[in-house]
Amino acid sequence: MSAGRTRFVGMGVRIEVDHLTMRYGAVTAVEDISFTVEPGEFFGLLGPNGAGKTTTLETIEGLREPTEGRVAIDGRDPARREPDLQRRIGVQLQSSAFFERLTAVEQLQTFGSIYGVPTSRLDELLEQVGLTEKATAQVEDLSGGQKQRLSIACALVHDPEVVFLDEPTAALDPQARRNLWDVLRGINESGRTVVLTTHYMEEAEELCDRVAIVDHGQLLQLDTPATLIRRLDAATRIGLAVEAISIDEARALPGVQTVAVGSAGLVIETRDAATVLGELGRREALEGLSVSKGTLEDVFLDLTGREYRA
């Protein structure tokens, strides 16, 4: 669980994915995947394009029926579309369509009317996603980040216990993405189970209690981001100002594996950071010092490869 987070015991729902397989003719999109999501957990599904994560998510949501295996939300099959179970589920799709020429609050009213939601809840929702000042703005006049916030508000309108978010920050600029993180964090901290798919490893590392990395329809690894990073045993990166030490001197230091010069300065990779830092200190070559270990992105690339996939 991420630092500073409070677990809401007994809230949210439990999700079970048991030997899930999804085939479309001769194509196997998901192959024998199993995992559980605990009540109140913020769970991430990560994978390259075409890895099977959206198919897995849509099956959990009940939008697709498994070819083989079983999916359950609190022990019930979501594909049966039972109304009382559907009320407990909120879904935010990759791309959301809104009604033309309706304001933000009118969009919420329309979605809320399906569930008999009182209009008094709408102001609360707009405040929760930071759109109070845009309540009377038409959707066409909202920015990309604001539209994503409204999409999430529509998924929350009936106060679900579990929320599914399929790449909610895709195509957003860094500021809008980080701003939306606060909204997603708040959704989880209110006691809801959250299942997220994303291409942004920093986002998953920041938000998720556990992540499942999938590729070619198979589950490769599942654990907390911190555990996956430790398991990778990546080299430590030591950054320095270019003028701190020459490349030849850096390469000659005991414990150094590689030395490179980038736009940010000199980068030394080592598996013996204490020795390298000690040597740099003795040479008074610590200008611009930064030290970083592996990241979830390193884990992801190690498992799935570095080639680009359209």
TrEMBL record:
Q: Where in the cell is it found?
A: Cell membrane
Instruction: Give GO terms: molecular function aspect only.
Output: ATP binding
Q: Name one Pfam family in it.
A: ABC_tran
- Keyword RNA-binding present in the record's keywords: the answer is no
According to its record, how does it sit in the membrane?
Peripheral membrane protein
Family, similarity comment: Belongs to the ABC transporter superfamily.
Annotated protein name in UniProt: ABC transporter ATP-binding protein
Q: Which organism is it from?
A: Aeromicrobium alkaliterrae
